[in-house]
Amino acid sequence: MIDFGFDKLALIGTVALIVIGPEKLPRVARTVGHLLGKAQRYVADVKAEVNRSIELEELKKMKGEFEDAARNVEQTVNQHIHDTGREFDQAWKDMDAASSGSLGGADDGSALAAPLQPPVPEYRHPKKKWRLKRGAVPQWYKQRNGVRTRTQSGAARVARFRPPSR
């Protein structure tokens, strides 16, 4: 870069004063200042654009690395799930084979019958039956959260919370 000291700037100023003249020198200096400002802004814009493109490339590279890592984790998890499922199926088959072998070959089906359990009632959505919905909430939950369980008029509510008279 060119190193301008005070002596060099003074020499350039005197030469410009002689060549251009004292009448036009302020206008020329202003024009040169504007042009230098525009050049500096242009260089700053170019630097900013280059920095943005470099950051964008870095972000794209980082995004690719994260996607690769996520893919590897997903494949590892899927492989473990598949292996565990296969082991479970094998253990289930072994248990099934062991239980059928321990029965002694009885084909009457009585040994296989499990004790009967009462059927679980099927859940039915209450739809618009709000009384049923409200009744399904446990009493302890209503008390803890301050849900009113009894209807009370406004006057009775005011009388209930009115301080005692003296």
TrEMBL record:
GO molecular function: protein transmembrane transporter activity
Membrane topology: Single-pass membrane protein
Subcellular location(s) per record: Cell membrane; Membrane
Chief location: membrane
Alphabetical GO biological process terms: protein transport by the Tat complex
Swiss-Prot/TrEMBL keywords: Cell inner membrane, Cell membrane, Membrane, Protein transport, Translocation, Transmembrane, Transmembrane helix, Transport
Gene3D superfamilies referenced in this protein's UniProt entry, alphabetically: 1.20.5.3310
Record field: compositional bias (Basic residues): 125-134
GO CC terms of this entry: TAT protein transport complex
Alphabetical list of InterPro entries matching this protein: TatA/B/E, TatB
Keyword match Lipoprotein: no
Region (Disordered): 93-166
Record bears the keyword Secreted: no
UniProt-listed NCBIfam families: tatB
Family per similarity comment: Belongs to the TatB family.
HAMAP family: TatB
Subunit-structure text: The Tat system comprises two distinct complexes: a TatABC complex, containing multiple copies of TatA, TatB and TatC subunits, and a separate TatA complex, containing only TatA subunits. Substrates initially bind to the TatABC complex, which probably triggers association of the separate TatA complex to form the active translocon.
Its job: Part of the twin-arginine translocation (Tat) system that transports large folded proteins containing a characteristic twin-arginine motif in their signal peptide across membranes. Together with TatC, TatB is part of a receptor directly interacting with Tat signal peptides. TatB may form an oligomeric binding site that transiently accommodates folded Tat precursor proteins before their translocation.
PANTHER family recorded: SEC-INDEPENDENT PROTEIN TRANSLOCASE PROTEIN TATA, CHLOROPLASTIC
Protein's name according to its UniProt entry: Sec-independent protein translocase protein TatB
Record organism: Piscinibacter sakaiensis
